[in-house]
Amino acid sequence: MHWPATEENHGFNSGPDPDNRPAWELIDNDIIRSLPDHLKQYIVDQNYAAYTPIDHAVWRYVLRQNHDFLREYAHLIYFDGLEKTGLEVEHIPSIQEMNKILGKIGWAAVSVNGFIPPAAFMAFQARRVLVIAADMRQIHHIEYTPSPDIIHEAAGHAPVIADSEYAEYLRLFGEIGSKAMASRKDHELYEAIRKLSILKETPGADSVEINRAEKDVLFKQENLGEPSEMARLSRLHWWTVEFGLIGTVDDFKIYGAGLLSSIGESFRCLSPKVRKIPYDLSAADYAFDITTEQPHLFVTPNFVQLINVLEEFASDMAFRVGGLEGIRKAIQSQHPATCQYSSGLQVSGIASDVITDAQKRPVYIRMGGPTSLAYDYRELAGHGKDYHADGFGSPVGRLAGFDTPLELLSDTDLQLLGVEPGRHSTLEFAGGVTVQGRLERVIRRDGKIILMSFEDCSVHRGDNVLFDPSWGTYDMGVGHAITSVFSGAADIDAYEQPSMVSKTRTIKVKSDEKTQRLHELYQSIRDIREGRRPEEGLPDIWAELQRDHSDHWLPALELVEVLARSGANPPLLAEVRAWLESRAAEDPDLTKLINDGLRLAAV
């Protein structure tokens, strides 16, 4: 780099660790150290030194505008939160810096590469970890970007966490959201959104390709079919965490990060053209479009209402009700999910089939492919996906003629049934499934039978053969009901799910010589403003900007600020201001940006 990285004086991480340690090891925070491996894989190094002087100028412009505009329109907690989280106007925050502050309120922060899968995002949030996409938006997206960036994450999300009720809402949302069942189409939409967000923030990206990506996102949004739990939950997240208002429909304040971090949309949301709707569970029925401005927003009276609505939504989710509906959601997802028996046994894999009785109750479930068995989110020894590589199937329900569930029977009860290790036994279930074989072992946890293993075993329901003795040992899950179904494996690290880190990465573009020189000019203006260089160099900087970078308005705006405060060169100040006013009049896209900047430059 050719510009002086003066921000390194703050002690920020300047680049990749020379010892090649994982990025999470570079963060001094107990919460980060305790994260499971499947989440640590998403953490990347922030590489603070990669931020350019333009990046810092964009951050400063947005934060200055936010401080000015949002004082009247943001929830009061926002400014209290800015102070508590230590975010400063003058420089982009480092992850280390944020963790020192967030640690005091029981939270942490990590850098990730753009959008990460919703389930992973929720799992971080459940553990009180703020996920920060460390990239910075381009200057022509200074008002709003569909791609997550550090302005959105750090200046949008972090300050509101200072409110304890809101922080608990975020944590609870993560806990519930990490269990939400998603569909195959949800995963396809995620990849389409990630691709679009990357293209939008890629300098020189082909407009035709961007248009194609936008159409693909719209098509997938409009063709999700019956929305999954995750899709509906994502809507609640969007209308609260991202674009939420608090108060009444006639008197409200902004608290959603998407609004707090968008100097354009935070202004436009005040318009009566944007419909304001009281927030309740019906918000889950309102789809959203990330590619355009929001036509309506929801207003909650307080943060407690957010928690109440979330709990109301969760009461019908598969992880709380289980049953046939939950199993079917797992089958439809075509992704790893867990079916939990009433005994506590957790069966994790890709659900492939469920057999029901005449009353539409599940009597037998099947997992196709590698399956893991766990209890209390810990894999049972010897029952990982390598052992159950070809799948897993097991009955669900009570024994025929018995009111007491099988999982509650004692060893004496089993003996009275003629069921004990070493003996050939027959178990007939009320749902019509019959298990015949030599019992080898019984596994109990907390007094309940969770697993029974048979040799020389056959399992059938009528003429339907469910297991043949030639297939080997039959491990039978025990439980009279499926009480919970949730996304992902119970013991995710042990299950060793294939990495879900998207192969679509954010694109880093190397600066050419002209752009490098523009960076140096931005840095020179900053150095003069902060007293590290004399003001005599301002005329030369302005002349070079006019000659080689006449399409850039932000450095001119910073020149006006320096000149207005010093009063050293009134003719130059008048010239630069006139040029900016002319640009504002000629280009509608710059009118508000420049006029708002000029107003603050004189303060």
Low-pLDDT runs of 5+ residues are 1-16, 502-507
- The CATH architecture classification of the largest domain is Orthogonal Bundle
How far the N terminus sits from the C terminus, by CA atoms, comes to 33 Å
| Strand coverage percent | 15-25%
Helix/strand class = alpha+beta
How many beta strands in the DSSP annotation?
Answer: 17
Query: What's the alpha carbon Rg, rounded to whole Å?
Result: 29 Å
- The number of helices is 23
Mean of all residue-level pLDDT scores: 88
Q: Helicity level, as a percent range?
A: 25-40%
Largest sheet geometry: 6 strands, antiparallel
Itemize the secondary structure elements and their pairings.
Layout: H1 30-33, H2 37-40, H3 53-73, H4 77-84, H5 95-102, E1 108-112, H6 118-126, E2 129-133, H7 150-157, H8 164-177, H9 184-200, H10 207-222, H11 229-242, E3 245-247, E4 252-254, H12 257-260, H13 265-268, E5 275-278, E6 296-300, H14 303-314, H15 318-321, H16 323-333, E7 337-341, E8 345-356, E9 362-375, E10 378-379, E11 391-395, H17 411-416, E12 424-428, E13 433-445, E14 448-461, E15 464-467, E16 474-477, E17 482-487, H18 492-495, H19 513-529, H20 538-548, H21 554-566, H22 570-586, H23 588-601
Parallel strand pairs: 1-2, 3-6, 5-6
Antiparallel strand pairs: 3-4, 7-8, 7-17, 8-9, 9-10, 9-11, 12-13, 13-14, 14-15, 14-16
What does this structure look like?
The protein is an alpha+beta fold and 603 residues long. The protein has three domains: 7-310, Aromatic amino acid hydroxylase (Phenylalanine Hydroxylase), CATH 1.10.800; 320-495, no CATH class; 513-601. The chain has 23 helices and 17 strands. Strands 7, 8, 9, 10, 11 and 17 form a six-stranded antiparallel β-sheet that branches. Helix 21 runs parallel beside helix 23 (588-601). The longest helix has 21 residues, at 53-73. Residues 1-16 and 502-507 have low confidence and may be disordered.
